[in-house]
Amino acid sequence: MAEPTNTPMPPSTPVPASTPRSTSPAPALPILTASAVLKLSAMSSPSSPSAPASRRSIVLHIGDPVKYNPATYEEFSAAFEVIRPSAAERERPEFIRALKERRWGDFSAIFRPFWSTGGEMGQWDAELIDLLPDTVKVFASAGAGFDWADTTLLGEKGIIYCNSGLAAAEAVADFAVAMVISTFRHLPWCMTAATLPPSSPAAFQACHTLAPLASHNPRGHTLGLIGLGNIGQQIAAKLGNPAFGMRIAYHDVIRKPPALEAALNATFHPTLASLLKVADCVVLATPASPSGAPLITPSTLSLFKRGARFVNVARGSLVDEDALADALEDGRIGAAALDVHSAEPAVNGRLVAMATQVDGKGTGTLPGPGRVMLTCHNAGGTVETHSGFEELSMRNVMAVLGGREAITGVNLGVLRR
């Protein structure tokens, strides 16, 4: 998997209604590359915390060893006593037993540098959080999403949760651009008709003839972004620039500063309903729903412009996938692209059928086959992203335990209260 949402499977559990949105720093300019992420984190945590060698803070490292940033890890491990539980100890029953036994002492931080390992204990809920020692100050994890951890409860216990979405922003935005283009040009139809059984000369010719009648250039169409955080800003910058020329509209729980709106030429919509009514393509790029419930439902789908397109690079749990399939079948939604799914690694069978159908049926206004692009939670999955996850997670721990501000804390509002 890759959220932007990079969360451990299964990612379908909704976040609590009180979970705050990420307060990760938005870039001063829309483009924030992976190298810029590393520079930012290094500047924010310029040195190791100074602690007596005999009283080094303990960091619980859950998951695989660091792979991409040996120099930073050398600094990290010199500053702290790093304990890495075995894979068996990370399974939930044994993990709970170890916490009750205080097997790893009074550790001060939890460090999880990879999204693919370190989540064996499952949901970080009250059962786990209540067992953490009072010495824990920070939980720094890979990935943008945090629907697998009760960040409100962590904050109430005095623990800052830091995500690494900043490091994945460029990769996810690039992937989202490809998906938006797919919905306008019906790429799954074009690809499956040419390559996959039951591909045939008739299927090829039908796609060659009919796909152009249902395809459009993105230029001049309105891109509706649900969420204008780091990822949303990069998507807006990439698709709203002269190369693609899309009109940018967005909805977020907090309106962005005028300077940023001007830089992105983005129009704010105070309600989701207002945004959906004007968007030709809607991109879901928010880490969570304010209520913890799905955002894309029969009710909200009814507000889409007929034939509008939909892209999800956020959380699978935010979409009622059967309702989306219904909207695709009746033509309310013209095409869709989903990188994340509500029951990963399983994918909705109705959407799979729409992604792989190549029977040659279709019309100029409502193409039948290949109307859905489906990928395997890959949006943030690049080497640069993983390197950034490691670096940013270590820098967050070093910052907090060194008495400085967290770089990408997502629950700071809870701590302030």
For the largest sheet, list the strands in their spatial order. Answer: 8-7-6-9-10-11-12
Rg from Cα: 22 Å
Shape: elongated
Please identify the structural class as seen in this structure: alpha/beta
CATH second-level architecture of the largest domain: 3-Layer(aba) Sandwich
What's the story with the biggest beta sheet? 7 strands, parallel
Number of spatially distinct domains: 2
Q: How would you describe the overall organization of this protein?
A:
- This protein has 417 residues and is an alpha/beta fold.
- The protein folds into two domains: 34-167 and 382-416, Rossmann fold (3-Layer(aba) Sandwich), CATH 3.40.50.720; 169-374, NAD(P)-binding Rossmann-like Domain (Rossmann fold, 3-Layer(aba) Sandwich).
- Helices cover 38% and strands 12% of the residues.
- It has 17 helices and twelve strands.
- The strands form two sheets. A seven-stranded parallel beta sheet has the order 8-7-6-9-10-11-12, with helices on both faces. It has a five-stranded parallel beta sheet with strand order 2-1-3-4-5.
- The longest helix has 21 residues, at 165-185.
- It is elongated, with a radius of gyration of 22 Å.
- The chain starts with 33 loop residues before the first helix and ends with a helix.
- The model is unreliable at 1-34, 44-53 and 362-367 (pLDDT under 50).
Which tags fit this structure?
17 helices, 7-stranded parallel β-sheet, elongated, Rossmann fold, 417 residues, D-mandelate dehydrogenase, 38% helix, alpha/beta, oxidoreductase
